[in-house]
Amino acid sequence: MPKKYLVGVGVVRGFVDDRLLFVGKTLIDTSMEISTSSTEIRGGQGNSLLAEYFHDSALNITITEAQFLLPVLALNVGVTQSTMGGKIFGSEEITLTGSSGTLTKVNAAQIASVSGAAKNVYIEYDGEYYSIPLTGNTFSVASTPIPANSTLCVAYLYNNANSETYIIPANYVPSRLHLYITVKLSGDSAGEGFIGEETIEIPIFQLSGSQTISMTADGVANTSLSGKAITFDDAGACESSGHYAKITETLYNKNWYDGVNALAISGGDFEMKVGENATMKVYAIKGNNSFLVDNSQLTFESSDSQYASVGANTGIVSADSAGDTLITAYITEKPTIEVSATLTVSD
């Protein structure tokens, strides 16, 4: 068996139902922690340890995105939709005509108020800040110490239709996602490169709802997408307690039948009545393990089709007339591995 090393960070894909919300390709952390707690069961003389009861299992995921992704931040607070448009600050360098100035980059309808109805421009002059009302697109500094005909940097708040706005609710429930994490596997041979990948599927991923945005002079703000897996109930499984995740390993140069040394037909020899149909179940044996093979990977044959026929790649047997026939199944891409069972058809 080749040596395999799980290397680097993964690529994360987040879904709600079947709708892809994001793909994280510039991650700096995709860590998974599986944990459980235990309670000792003690008794008898000396109160010796008899067993342990395990409980409170958990699967925690830490995902950190190097980029600042506002839609991901919004998911942490339970928001999946944005609105177009939003209020932002703009500025212009304006040379006054006397005491008057005119904005040229925005029109009067775009100007917004900070918190009320007033629409102002904001000017810093000589260490002081002035909020000056707008009339349409024009303003006057006549009531301030600002000299006539000055050249000024004038700021204002306006509505930008090209912006995108997410609202952070005061009372929120973090989103739940269907998460896939794909991480590369590396080999140990020179020049081998990546030999495969692990795909981690978390059907119900509950975001933590916590996000720290560090905006420092020498820093880069990252986006957190951390949380924990919620139990996913296995449909139709009476005794199952559900599962948190599935991990699927794919080796690029590996075939499913590598290492398979035999096939087995479920039930062995079998009987059918004329007119009946049945689907073959074939198991592959690999070492001490066995698994059900998808019939599309097999080829089926009937030794005498007058008694029964079988779909070449479906394994569906049709009983046509009374008699015996041999049903054979073999691996399509490795026909030397085969198995047969006798079918007896009766009226």
Please, could you describe this protein's structure?
It is a single chain. With about 350 residues, this protein is mainly beta. The protein folds into three domains: about 130 residues, Roll (Pnp Oxidase, Chain A); about 80 residues; about 80 residues, Sandwich (Immunoglobulin-like), CATH 2.60.40.1080. Helix content is about 0%, strand content about 55%. It is built from one helix and 25 strands. The strands form six sheets. Strands 1, 2, 3, 4, 11, 12, 13, 14 and 15 form a nine-stranded antiparallel beta sheet that branches. A hairpin with a 2-residue loop joins strand 1 and strand 2. The longest helix has 7 residues. The protein starts with a strand and ends with a strand. The mean pLDDT is about 90.
Which percent band covers the strand fraction? over 45%
Order of helices and strands: EEEEHEEEEEEEEEEEEEEEEEEEEE
The overall pLDDT average reads 91
Low-confidence stretches: none
- What general outline do the C-alpha atoms trace? elongated
Would you report the number of β strands? 25
Summary keywords:
single chain; 347 residues; mainly beta; Pnp Oxidase, Chain A; Immunoglobulin-like; 3 domains; nine-stranded antiparallel β-sheet; four-stranded antiparallel β-sheet; 1 helix; 2% helix; 54% strand; elongated
